[in-house]
Amino acid sequence: MTTTAYERLVAKLKRVHYLGTVAGLLGWDEQVNLPPDSADQRAEQLALLAELQHAAAADPEIGTLLAELAPASAVEAKSNTMGYTFPQDADRGVVVREARRDYERVVKLPASFVTEKARHSSAAYHAWAAAKEHSDFSAFAPFLQKHLDLARQEAAFLGWGDRAYDYAIDKHDPGLTAAKLTELFGELQVGLVPLVGAIAASSVRAKAGVFKNFPVHAQRDFLREVTEKLGFNYRRGRIDVSLHPFCEGSGADIRMTTRFDADNPLDSLFSSIHETGHGLYEQGLPLAAQGTPLGQNAGMGVHESQSRLWENQVSRSPAFWRFFEPRFRQKFPAQLAAVSSADLYLAVNEVAPTLIRVDSDEVHYNLHILLRFELERRLFSGELSVADLPAAWNALSEKLLGLTPTSDRVGVLQDVHWSGGAFGYFPSYCLGNMIAAQLWFTVRKVYPELDADFEKGDFSRLLGWLRTHIHEQGRRYEALELVRRVTGEELTPKYLLRYLQERYAPLYLQ
Ligand code: ZN
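A: This is the predicted complex of the input protein with zinc ion.
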């Protein structure tokens, strides 16, 4: 029996994918289990796997097979036109189109450039950590400048010319551009400012210090019950503890992590639910297509929409708490004895500005992203120099959040992303919030009974809808096209604004 060119291509793609999953597992293990003196050995293992994976992804036979399956010019022309389907076999068309996108990204970058960027990222990470510790941006500035230069070079290698920031955005969310984000974020900002101002002027405040001494084992039991009810399949995944929560893996093996604090049970609960949203997406990608683009996620923005929808729209809702509050109290009767239902619900939906993005509530969160997007855009256009970045950060922070950082540590140095050269990544968070809200209003039109489901602890109808419309699509559509098809409308911030208004006005503005 002879194998066809398509089958040979798929076999090659699976090889790349499975090497990636091994590296992912080693990375997970590094965060969760690694003995303190084993880091050097792990670094060697990961470097070897990265080399093997790169070689597999750059295999010239992939190029030959792609050329055979679809001539370059035809694929390029079609890949820019969303909604295109290959008449004979739509699935194969998607796999070839996306495999070609990946292949070009790999082969157009010289090996020397890849090595230089990896080496610089490692050095820049350590420089950032030290600069953050001493709250001294100037020590990190040359590393950031070099990352910007590398990002421009990378865009040039890939044929994006002087649109380096668009390239950085497209890397995380194919099809999105700085111009499109400027339009979406601008509209969002106009709607957010009055809501933020009104909440700031409100006398309603969540009570501080109401949560004390929640035993970790009971927290673990409770979040297991919650995440299982939401639909996470623990026969194809697990949850462990790490310093920073994350979700790793795909297909039949998803590794999530969380962290515990006896005096902050909601942090652990909500970060676990967030990672569960990521995990549900990965578990819902079609297993039969694993290793091909049809078995892969549609980019960071869509991924984040899944985590945010479960974390915010679902799990901060009154219906969710009507089911889970009695269970929460059963687990922690003494700790919650003096906490009223109203106080508990207000704590779940606490709104208060903070300098730190990762500590932010969902009303202010998008402002943190708007700030970073604006600064990245100005850095790439040349309007802003690296040396002037801290001052620009502080000014925007004052303008958007009403707070001026007292040091670089809680300002421009707070996030790890730029130390790895990950420009264009922050917008995905805000994009995810907008997509989540738009999906939320769409699915509630389809199933008006979702609240009644949640009150019974049944989330299967919502999950089923997400499975069909988002998860099972893999990389068939770019984010904007996916949203258009599923919701019948262009992506717009108006649903996020409406959701925030409907959730927070009754709590803070009555
Ligand atoms: Zn996330």
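DSSP finds 21 helices and three strands in the chain. The chain has two domains: 5-137, 178-508.
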